[in-house]
Design brief:
By secondary structure, this protein is an alpha/beta fold. It folds into 2 domains: 2-190, Rossmann fold (3-Layer(aba) Sandwich); 201-321 and 373-416, PAS domain (Beta-Lactamase, 2-Layer Sandwich). It is 28% helix and 22% strand. The protein is built from 10 helices and 19 strands. A hairpin with a 4-residue loop joins strand 9 (224-229) and strand 10. The chain is elongated, with a radius of gyration of 28 Å. The two termini are 33 Å apart. The chain binds flavin mononucleotide. Residues 333-418 are annotated as: Disordered. Residues 3-148 form the NADPH-dependent FMN reductase-like domain.
Length: 418
């Protein structure tokens, strides 16, 4: 069932356009799950109001992002759309791409015989502007004039001709979404799952990898990785099955500030900025996620000269590793797979002291304490409210970056149980 977000194009207490959307919600309940959104919840648009203070705007953008399609129901005010609706669309087009390629449909009710035709033309023009770039279904006009006569007292659209037209247009809209999603699957998602130049190799100083191997390495290692690039945009995520943080290609390219609840943004940006400024290299967060113990680590990604390239978020369950530890896998003389002690007291000395390297066959001394643990650079100032573990002591400082007191995900703002 398609999820449709339907915006009431006015902030009036009583509205025939709201009545129309309520009728559509009931009438098409077998075809679509329609959620009606009141634009009266939004403040008037202004470029001077910081987006970081606009929780309601952020919520609306999340709803648009999650919807398969958006319906705008517009009244006609002075041959144009109401100011409140224009303001809502400005929020949806300013420093965001939530409407980009989003299937949208325009409907409208007005008193006049022209039935909101002129405001709908204006609405269509706005929706195809570069900053909206919505995927507007062509034709498909739902023009409902004479508002005071065409609805019953209980809110049903009782004009047969108008209702037939509405049914036809809404059915087209749902079909259009379906077709668009299939195109989207092949045209957009496939290149992400299948690197295009599958024969090419990347030559590293330490060997070469095919693009396919790179892709499959990221799918195979038990940790998932996300990249926020140096311009603070969500650039890439590893295509690992059963990810802890479920990602969507629709979020790729979004500014990191857009991917978070506004209240989480300062803490997330504090991590990123401390990496960019060279004050820190690592932030570690042990968390309970999806019912198991997990570790999130943010790393500053730098080139060989130390220039900031972005932030990577490294996330995975550590249940398996902790389980081994708890079974005593690293206790001296223990068998790593079972935790059971492997050697008798009279076992040959070299077996006690050597471990084979699976890739080269070289052996390392078990007494070698030169591990590669990297301690985070001392923080000049910690972002308020980030749960962080001190790499030296394992002590954890409590807190949360999420507005609702859950720990926020630096890439998308998804929150996990603590
Ligand atoms: C400021 C204003 C301007 C209006 N201009 C038009 C108009 O140009 N064309 C029209 O058909 N109706 C016009 N109307 C009447 C609206 O169609 C009518 O108020 C309608 O109910 C508005 O939709 P709503 O009930 O969803 O708020 C205007 C109403 C207002 C308040």
């Amino acid at each position: 069932m398609k999820k449709i977000l339907a915006l009431v194009g006015t902030n009036a207490n009583f509205s025939y356009n709201r009545l129309l959307l309520k009728f559509m919600k009931k009438h098409f309940k077998q075809m679509a799950d329609i959620e009606i959104y009141e634009i009266s919840k939004l403040p008037a648009f202004s470029v001077d109001v910081p987006l970081s203070e606009q929780t309601e705007v952020w919520k609306l953008k999340q709803k648009v992002k999650a919807a398969d399609g958006v319906v705008f129901s517009t009244p006609e005010y002075d041959h144009g759309i109401p100011a409140a609706l224009k303001s809502a669309v400005e929020w949806l087009s300013y420093h965001t791409t939530v409407l980009k390629h989003k299937p949208v449909m325009v409907v409208g009710v007005s008193y006049g015989r022209q039935a909101s035709a002129r405001s709908q033309v204006q609405m269509r023009q706005i929706l195809i502007s570069p900053d909206c770039d919505a995927n507007l279904i062509p034709g498909n006009e739902v023009l409902i004039g004479g508002a005071t006569h065409v609805f019953s007292k209980d809110g049903r659209l009782i004009n047969d001709e108008m209702r037939d037209n509405l049914e036809e247009c809404f059915t087209h809209f749902i079909e259009y979404i379906q077709i668009f999603e299939n195109v989207d699957e092949e045209e957009v998602k496939m290149p992400i799952k299948q690197p295009r130049i599958s024969e090419a190799y990347i030559k590293f100083p330490t060997g070469r990898l095919s693009l396919k191997e790179v892709q499959q390495i990221f799918s195979t290692i038990p940790f998932e990785i996300d990249l926020i690039d140096s311009t603070d945009h969500f650039a890439w995520y590893s295509d690992k099955p059963n990810r802890e943080h479920v990602r969507d290609v629709a979020s790729l390219g979004e500014p990191v500030t857009e991917c978070h609840p506004p209240k989480a943004v300062p803490a997330v940006m504090a991590i990123i900025n401390s990496f960019r400024d060279g004050k820190r290299d690592v932030v570690t967060r042990p968390l309970w996620m999806n019912g198991h113990r997990s570790l999130i680590q943010y790393y500053a990604l730098r080139d060989v000269d130390g220039h900031y390239l972005g932030t990577i978020e490294f996330t995975g369950s550590v249940e398996y590793i902790l389980g081994l530890f708890e079974k005593g896998a690293w206790d001296k003389g223990a068998d790593a797979s079972t935790g059971a002690s492997k050697h008798e007291d009279n076992a040959p000395a070299e077996e006690d002291d050597t471990t084979a390297d699976a890739s080269t066959g070289a052996s390392e001394s078990s007494d070698d304490t030169s591990t590669d643990t990297v301690a985070p650079a001392p923080a000049a100032s910690e972002p308020a409210g980030i749960e962080e573990t001190d790499a030296d002591t394992g002590a954890s400082e409590s807190g949360s970056v999420d507005a609702d007191d859950d720990a926020a995900d630096a890439t998308t703002g998804a929150s996990e149980e603590e």
